[in-house]
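Weekly puzzle thread! Below is a chain. First person to post its structure in token form gets bragging rights.
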Amino acid sequence: MKRDLGLIQAVYPMPVLMVAAYDENGKVNVMNAAWGNICDMDKVALFIGEDHKTTQNILKTKAFTVSIADREHMDAADFFGIATGNKMDDKFERTGYTAIKSEHVNAPIIDEFPVVMECELADVISNEHMHCVVGKIVNVAAEEKVLSENGKIAPEKLNALIFDQFQHGYYVTGEKVGKAWNAGKSLMQK
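Winning reply:
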């Protein structure tokens, strides 16, 4: 029997995404966004408040990058979530991380994170229930160390962080337990 827990954000796992954009002067800002996901074959949706410095920068420059945080860089990923660029002018600089300008969009790529989606601003959906920034993915780049022999990203090599909203912990992905579009195939025969 299930026990009532009240109102909680009961979705698990949540990605740990690093969203980066330049301000109007070319200064880098990065934020940690757990509320985001792919919303089409070439689009990513980020449910981030309009008061975030990174959101304001995206609206000005019309471009941003989304990186997948990994175990190796958990400390900086967490810092990007607890510090605000609205109050901390040297937020990015404090990490000692490196930003490289994307060749595809007017946004910074944070070199330390192993996978990045380079995005153009496609839409902003804002109403009384949500504020969503939608990006058109122009390019995805990944470090060789997280690629499999077939040239695709290998989750077991990525060590992607996932966020647990129940206990506020970080976990790492990696164990493959089945094959998508195959694990339930036997039920099709009934």
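Puzzle host: Confirmed. Bonus trivia for everyone else. The mean pLDDT is 95.
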